[in-house]
Amino acid sequence: MAELLVRNARIVYPATRGFVVDRGWLLVRDGIISGLAAGDVPVDVARPVAGRHEIDAAGMTLLPGLLNTHMHLYSMYSRGIGTGRVSHSFLDVLHDLWWRLDRCLLKDACWMSATFSGMDSLRSGTTTIVDHHASPSYITGSLSTLSDALSKIGLRHVLSYEITDRNGIQGAVAGIEENIRFFDEVRERGGLASGMVGLHASFTVSDATLTTLCERVGSRNVGYHVHIAEGAVDEADSVEKHGKRIVARLDDAGLLGPRSIAVHCVGIDASERELLAKSGTAVVVNTMSNMNNAVGLPAVREMLEAGIQVGIGTDGYTANMFEEFRNTLVGLRHRYEDPAGFWTQVQEAQIETNANIVSRCAGCTVGRLEQGAVADFILVDYASPTPLSPENAFGHMFFGMSADLVDTVVVNGNIAVEGHRVLAVDRENLERESRKVAKAVWEAFDRLS
């Protein structure tokens, strides 16, 4: 039985009904939290155990690992890239950058982007990502390539491939098959990986493809991970081609439900919010990406009033969830011109709703500091200059803590990051090899100009 014991930690669970333990301990057995409490380690827990690893936290703050409920690992290759074009609309951004870039990704690029972006996620305190992948030149096996890379560095992940008709019917069918292949593979294998079924967006997915997808999924209990109404083109296309708004279209196809994720939802209306709430489908907002693409911010207040669970993701814009949830708060306050709003809502989204979303997708209890939950947590080297209590813990997390202060990251009871260093990779060699791959990707990208 593999064990990990953490001593002398300030244990903080900044949920709406969380707790603060000034000095305590946490015990992990076989990847699961089996005990945590205040004070010294009890004698029966402290007894020597063969193979046990111990961490003296020396007063560092122990938090549940952060969760990114919508990520694009491959967006790493956009860093520093030049498109040679001026994008005037969201659709231009897709054509000029993303739909050119994803066509240039082969196996080595997929593996490298997963490793490097996964490393950035871990070092920022994120222990689980829900990724939405696209590589139309390398579809079959692509999710396993990502999963192998992420498992090697010790990052929990929920993966799906972006089904779309924009690369032809063969590409759409291959995307369907890759989702199903990977879902079945990891359902049997277990470990750090879980699967969903990904769709790009309604305006690039035909009715024929939806029908084929539903036939192939069959009786599998899958969740769907889909962009909805990120830009105005999506809703306009759905109404024009299908005579209904996007969420109604997806509902009619049977793609909504508690295990599904509706991403963005910038342009949905009240009728769509009602359908999402009724089906139990969570919405994931991505504030920095939406602002960067100038598509506006979703009506989060109205979503919450409708009874929708709203989580937070980064859309690949960053790997840093500390940065994302800060920007979510200030972005929503700006949208609604409410300088006192959304404090409790953002806290709940980041700490509780994201945990609910990932737990449903992964089929285990993730993102919580409690017995029986998977042992995914971080140690933050945070010196608290003011009193820290259950009532103000999120304020310390929001205004005082940052990715730079993350010292140690534990996923499934295994130490993935120690001293802010990812243990499974040689960072210098990885950076050198990644630049070689990036050069080939960018050269292919330029040929598509």
Structure commentary:
With 449 residues, this protein is α/β, with parallel strands linked by helices. Helices cover 41% and strands 22% of the residues. It has helices spanning 43-46, 90-101, 107-123, 142-153, 169-189, 207-217, 232-242, 246-252, 270-279, 287-292, 300-306, 321-336, 343-362, 393-399, 427-447; strands at residues 3-13, 19-29, 32-38, 53-56, 61-64, 66-71, 126-133, 156-163, 193-195, 197-201, 224-228, 261-264, 282-285, 310-312, 377-380, 406-411, 414-418, 421-422. Strands 1, 2, 3, 4, 5, 15, 16, 17 and 18 form a 9-stranded mixed β-sheet that branches. Strands 6, 7, 8, 9, 10, 11, 12, 13 and 14 form a 9-stranded parallel β-sheet that branches. Helix 3 packs across helix 15, helix 5 packs parallel to helix 6 (207-217) and helix 8 packs parallel to helix 9. The protein starts with a strand and ends with a helix.
